[in-house]
Amino acid sequence: MIGIICALKEELEEILIFTENIKTENHYPFKFITGTIFGVNCCIVLCGVGKVSSAACTQALILKYHPDLILNVGVAGGIDKNISIGDIVIADFVVQHDFDASPFPGRKRGEISDLNLIKIPCSKWITDKLLVCSQKITDVNLHVGTVLTGDQFINSKKKLYELKNEFGGKACEMEAGSIGHVCYLNKTDFGIIRSISDNADENSLPNFEKFVKNSSKKASLLLAEFIKFSRD
Ligand code: ADE
User: Residue 115's domain spans which residues?
Assistant: First the structure.
């Protein structure tokens, strides 16, 4: 079974368009949607925004459904000059940019104390397979890189330059790092697909509102190709 986590209902709706044999199960506070996508068993769940909700949801998904892998699918802010709205970013690493235990000697900003890691690696086979599958999607620019997660909607050039200088990375959003963290702790394979809805700058809010649906669709198209490829 493939576990699929998204934070926003706009993201979920695009995935449900190609989900069949839908059943829902409530494991409070989350509603899990089981079904098939191109014949492959999937469990799809709306986690809500932010690191806490997404971490709790990921742990519940793992304990209740034991997925073989988890994909986080949705939108993000682009943080690199050559990344435009509508592009897709496949993560190779995730970072929690607002994790800060640096007052402790030897600790760096972003370093997850219990793991001694700043960058959590996504499962390489998933990143590689997503890259192969992305060739099937026309008219989309694709990037592979670090996705930065924090409990903040980024809407200033100053903040995004700070993030970029400190951690590098291609996109910022609010769940991938915590989903990756929980998967890493549970030894569950995971991958991240994000399509760019805004540039994390002063126009990020109106752009997000304008492009969230279209960018969610693009992310779900790559998910669909991945699942088709898993079945073949
Ligand atoms: N998700 C989409 N755009 C974002 C932004 N600018 N900051 C954080 N999360 C986002």
Answer: 2-231
> Quick one: which H or E segment has residue 53?
helix 51-65
Cβ of 76 closer than 6 Å to ligand 1, yes or no, is: yes
Joined together, the tokens standing for residue 123 give 């499962």
Q: Which of 198, 222, 88, 187 is nearest to 145 (CA)?
A: 88
Give the Cβ contact number of residue 131 at 10 Å.
Answer: 14
Any idea what DSSP says for residue 29?
T
Per-residue DSSP letters for 64-122?
HH--SEEEEEEEEEE-STT--TT-EEEEEEEEETT---TTSTTPPTT-BTTTTBSEEEP
Residue 134 belongs to a domain with what CATH number?
3.40.50.1580
Does residue 11 carry a catalytic annotation? yes
Q: Kindly report whether the global pTM for this prediction surpasses the value 0.85.
A: yes
Per-residue pLDDT tens digits for 16-72 = 999 999 999 999 999 999 999 999 999 999 999 999 999 999 999 999 999 999 999
Measured distance CA(174)–CA(180) in Å, rounded: 12
Ligand 1 centre to CA of 155 (Å) is: 8
Residue 43, ligand 1, Cβ within 6 A: no
* Atom 2, ligand 1: residue with shortest CA distance: 76
Site of tokens 């449900």: 16
The number of distinct structural domains making up the chain is 1
